[in-house]
Structures are given as structure tokens and as C-alpha cells.
């Protein structure tokens, strides 16, 4: 099976498993795990932040940052199709007591003008704003990269309104490779979450990075949410290996996504969103049944995701070669063209 459902389906390589087995470990919460400390310092340096903290998952990292940066009975401004809105089971409301205020976007991803248009004027009758969140790359928009200049403009609007900015940068590695910019340059936010278990191919883990005072609160949130860690160097070793060996190769995933997009655009009347990175979105014409398309592709040996009732998502990754993508394109094209 050629599995294009997500870049989270990758398996640790043999070399990554050896690095995990050989990791030097300690009790992270009591004395500090030496391998975990190396990872957190490395991530903080890469992102240009004071400190970083490891998390079991990106969702937990995002939610811990929201908890640290907001107050209950306030609202958080996000893109209407952000991962935090659609895929984190209302965690911001349940864990931090905050309200989500979705930002309708004039493009696939909101810009500074979109943010400014929805900011509420101060009023005793309206909830106060406490945080702006951005997502880079943007999953729901097909792995779209928000340019650094636009992120700076969004951050400037937030600053004028005395609001911090958190970045869901689960695939920020892809944004860095796609733009040729350093991670520190594309990490244009007060706090940033990055995930190791997506494009980098680690089996688990994420990190949040930011200013020292905020990271103290983020640590408390991780503990509160049940994320205390012990001999976590086993996990950190996988992430360190991924940073050393799997970053530059993300360009291959981007090239494979372009290959799929070129091969599938127009097949069966479908439209492909041009990919910036490793996510390919296929929009089906009216009347075509998405479940049938996905079923036919699976029978042909290709797994893919039903993103909405009319949109299919494909994600290229470490475990899918260029030859695999060529084969998958043939299978998917036939599935799209079937009546």
C-alpha cells in the first residue's frame, strides 16, 4: 500500500531506532534528561527563541501555549480553517476557557487586513482578545506557506493591539525548506510549536519555543495536562536524528507533491490546488462521490484522505519514493476518471 493519507504514517528508520536505543537518559522532570536537554537547546537555537520544551504531541504543545498566553473568558483569533479550530476537539475552550474567533480570509490563509477587520473595538459588552494564532505551513490550505513579510504584518497588527502571537508550526520545517529561509526567520511569532512526527519522520513528539518567562508557564501547562516526562531521551534521540538527517530531504517531498499535482490536475474534471510544500489537495467536481474515489484508489493500492465532502488530501513523506508517487498518480487518476 502506498500510503498518502498523512506524513504521520512514517516508520522510524533503522538508524533512527539505533539512535533511540543508544540514547543517554535520565528523569526529565527531576534531574533533567541529557538527550532531551540537547534537543530543547537545539530547537530553541534553530527557532531563535530563549527556550524550548518537548511535548508528546503538537496538539498538546498548541494547547499549552494557548493556556500560557491567554486568560479565561477572552477570545483567540485564528484562521477559520486552522488546525486548532478544526482538529483539536475544542481544546482551547475545554482547557483554557477561551473562545475561538475565526478569521474569514480573503485568500486561502488570512492576512493582516483580515485580522484587523475582525478585531473587536473595546467594549464592556464584548469579550476581550488575548491571542492571535497563525499556522505555517497551513494544513487546510494545502500546505501553503505564509510569507515572512505577511507574518510580520500580522504580528505588527497584533502588537498594536497588545496581543501575543502563537504559531502552529507543525510543518515549519517544510516552510523553511520551501522558502530557503532559516527556521528563525520563518518563526515569526512570540511562541512557536514544531512537530517532529510529521515530515521529519520521528515516531512521536513536538516542541514549543518562546521567551523564558512564557516558557515557565508552558512548563506548568504541560504538567497540568498530564505531560510529565521521565526517560524521554529515547524520544528526543529520534527527533535529534531527524533534525540531522531528514531536514534537507524535505525538498524531495515537495518535488513529489508537484509531480502528483501535475499528473492529477484535470483528471476526471478535478482541480488540484498548486502545492507549496508536501500537501496536495484535489477538489472534485459536482456529482463525483468522494468515498467511491477513495475506495477505488485503495483497491488499487493507494491510501488517501477524505478531507471534506468534495476534497481529497494527499501528503508526500519519507516513506514514499518518487517511483511510488508515479505509480500512485496512475492509480488515483483512474479512480478520479471512473464514473
Total strands: the figure is 13
The CATH class of the largest domain is identified as Alpha Beta
Widest β-sheet, arrangement of strands = 2-8-7-6-5-3-4
Q: Average the pLDDT over all residues and give the rounded result.
A: 97
Give the proportion of residues in helices. 40-55%
Category by helix and strand content: alpha/beta
**Beta fraction of the residues?**
15-25%
**Low-pLDDT stretches:** none
- How far apart the termini lie comes to 23 Å
Integer-rounded radius of gyration: 20 Å
Query: What name does the CATH topology of the largest domain carry?
Result: Aspartate Aminotransferase, domain 2
The CATH homologous superfamily of the largest domain is named Type I PLP-dependent aspartate aminotransferase-like (Major domain)
**Apparent shape:** globular
Q: What can be said about the biggest beta sheet?
A: 7 strands, mixed
Amino acid at each position: 500500500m502506498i500510503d498518502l493519507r498523512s506524513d504521520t504514517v512514517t516508520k522510524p528508520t533503522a538508524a533512527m531506532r539505533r539512535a533511540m536505543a543508544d540514547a543517554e537518559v535520565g528523569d526529565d522532570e527531576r534531574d533533567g534528561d541529557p538527550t532531551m536537554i540537547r534537543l530543547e537547546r537545539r530547537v530553541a537555537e534553530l527557532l531563535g527563541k530563549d527556550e524550548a520544551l518537548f511535548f508528546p504531541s503538537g496538539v498538546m504543545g498548541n494547547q499549552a501555549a494557548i493556556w500560557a498566553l491567554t486568560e479565561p473568558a477572552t477570545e483567540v483569533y485564528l484562521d477559520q480553517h486552522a488546525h486548532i479550530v478544526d482538529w483539536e476537539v475544542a481544546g482551547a475552550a475545554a482547557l483554557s476557557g477561551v473562545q475561538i474567533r475565526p478569521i474569514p480570509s480573503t485568500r486561502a490563509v488570512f492576512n493582516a487586513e483580515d485580522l484587523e477587520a475582525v478585531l473587536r473595538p473595546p467594549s464592556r459588552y464584548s469579550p476581550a482578545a488575548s491571542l492571535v494564532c497563525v499556522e505555517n505551513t497551513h494544513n487546510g490550505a494545502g500546505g501553503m506557506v505564509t510569507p515572512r513579510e505577511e507574518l510580520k504584518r500580522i504580528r505588527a497588527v497584533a502588537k498594536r493591539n497588545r496581543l501575543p502571537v502563537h504559531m502552529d508550526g507543525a510543518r515549519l520545517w517544510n516552510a523553511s525548506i520551501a522558502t530557503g529561509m532559516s527556521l528563525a526567520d520563518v518563526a515569526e511569532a512570540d511562541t512557536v510549536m514544531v512537530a517532529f512526527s510529521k515530515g521529519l519522520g520521528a515516531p512521536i513528539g513536538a516542541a514549543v519555543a518562546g521567551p523564558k518567562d512564557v516558557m515557565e508557564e508552558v512548563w506548568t501547562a504541560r504538567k497540568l495536562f498530564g505531560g510529565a516526562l521521565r526517560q524521554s531521551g529515547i524520544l528526543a534521540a529520534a527527533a535529534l536524528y531527524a533534525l540531522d538527517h531528514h531536514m534537507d530531504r524535505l525538498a524531495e517531498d515537495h518535488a513529489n507533491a508537484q509531480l502528483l499535482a501535475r499528473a492529477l490536475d484535470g483528471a476526471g474534471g478535478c482541480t488540484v490546488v498548486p502545492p507549496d510544500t508536501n500537501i496536495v489537495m484535489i477538489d472534485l467536481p459536482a456529482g463525483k462521490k468522494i468515498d467511491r474515489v477513495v475506495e477505488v484508489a485503495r483497491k488499487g493500492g493507494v491510501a488517501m484522505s477524505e478531507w471534506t465532502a468534495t476534497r481529497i488530501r494527499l501528503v508526500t513523506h519519507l516513506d514514499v519514493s518518487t517511483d511510488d508517487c508515479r505509480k500512485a498518480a496512475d492509480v488515483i487518476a483512474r479512480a478520479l476518471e471512473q464514473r
